[in-house]
Q: What sequence folds into this?
């Protein structure tokens, strides 16, 4: 029987428990994306609090694309010393740390990115940013930029790198037919719409070798004209066949239907927890790669029920660990404790969360 406190292993990467702190924008880097003492202290609290593995907030891989203020950057070697200081602190306090890398495209904050790119010309329904279609040459350059950033993660002593392929950012937009209207080999069928993702993965693997590569994907986009569950099951099966090391299953984006995105509110009962569970179980049935499930985890009892119902190996959490960075240590002492997170979403603002300071 699985428990959250089981020790596991992916390649040479050892996990002291099955809880992964999922990526969330913390807003503690400086304006250019360099690591600050506040950023290090933020992640130190999570490590001390008992989380086995931490995935950083999304990290910019090109200097012209920054989906949010004060987000981490890794687009050149000047960022490596600060990242090394971050990993050293987290490791000294007993946790793994994974660098999440991203290109935001049209899903970002107006006025920050210098150039807005996308699979096709479009105006994002939420941000109102207008994206210009990437040329094949520019796609190739971005593939290389992902690989270079992953190499920097390896050099900075991260335990793994995670590709952000979910939530309406660029990789996700390529897969999503609402945003991807291309008529070449990058558009049309799911095989073509996921081509960019698989080119990124192949180039990253070539660059970092046996270093663990994770990915975050949507189980579906929960929007009219978006990627479907069948689309994403195909993508996950192909990723597994290609050798991805861990798939984190999420869902939705800023344009998703109300109450169907990743940051759902009103999680006020056990029946509303683990809201992507059924999708993740379907995916886990057809692949051999370990899955981590995010979405509304609030009680240890429900978490361990999920772990023992299918082939889900890890549980990802974000908002509850903003409210209580030491939640995992508390569960060691009080297994029936419910997270204090009330799913109010007030944690989505500049400089992290009001919950950090409670």
A:
């Amino acid at each position: 029987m699985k428990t959250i406190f089981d020790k596991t292993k992916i390649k040479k990467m050892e996990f002291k428990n099955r809880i992964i702190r999922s990526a969330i924008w913390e807003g503690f880097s400086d304006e250019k994306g360099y690591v600050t003492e506040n950023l290090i202290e933020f992640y130190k609290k999570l490590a001390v609090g008992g989380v086995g593995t931490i995935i950083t907030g999304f990290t910019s891989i090109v200097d012209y694309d920054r989906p949010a203020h004060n987000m981490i950057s890794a687009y050149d070697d000047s960022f490596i010393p600060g990242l090394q200081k971050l990993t050293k602190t987290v490791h000294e306090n007993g946790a793994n740390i994974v660098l999440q890398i991203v290109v935001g495209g049209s899903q970002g904050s107006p006025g920050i990115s210098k150039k807005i790119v996308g699979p096709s010309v479009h105006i994002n329904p939420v941000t109102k940013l207008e994206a210009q279609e990437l040329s094949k040459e520019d796609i190739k350059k971005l593939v290389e930029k992902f690989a270079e950033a992953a190499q920097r993660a390896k050099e900075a002593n991260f335990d793994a790198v995670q590709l952000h392929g979910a939530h309406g950012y660029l990789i996700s937009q390529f897969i999503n037919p609402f945003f991807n209207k291309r008529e070449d080999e990058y558009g049309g069928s799911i095989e073509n719409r996921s081509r960019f993702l698989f080119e990124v993965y192949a180039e990253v693997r070539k660059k970092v070798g046996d270093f663990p590569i994770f990915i975050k994907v949507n189980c579906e986009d929960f929007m009219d004209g978006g990627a479907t569950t069948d689309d994403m099951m195909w993508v996950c099966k192909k990723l597994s066949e290609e050798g991805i090391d861990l798939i984190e299953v999420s869902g939705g984006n800023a344009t998703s239907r109300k109450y169907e995105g990743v940051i759902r509110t009103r999680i006020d009962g056990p029946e509303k927890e683990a809201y992507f569970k059924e999708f993740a179980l379907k995916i886990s049935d057809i692949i051999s790669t370990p899955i981590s499930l995010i979405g509304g985890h609030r009680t240890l009892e429900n978490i361990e029920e999920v772990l023992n119902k299918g082939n889900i190996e890890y549980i990802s959490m974000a908002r509850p660990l903003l409210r209580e960075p030491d939640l995992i240590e508390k569960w060691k002492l009080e297994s029936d404790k419910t997270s204090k997170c009330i799913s109010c979403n007030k944690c989505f603002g500049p400089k992290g969360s009001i919950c950090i300071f409670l």
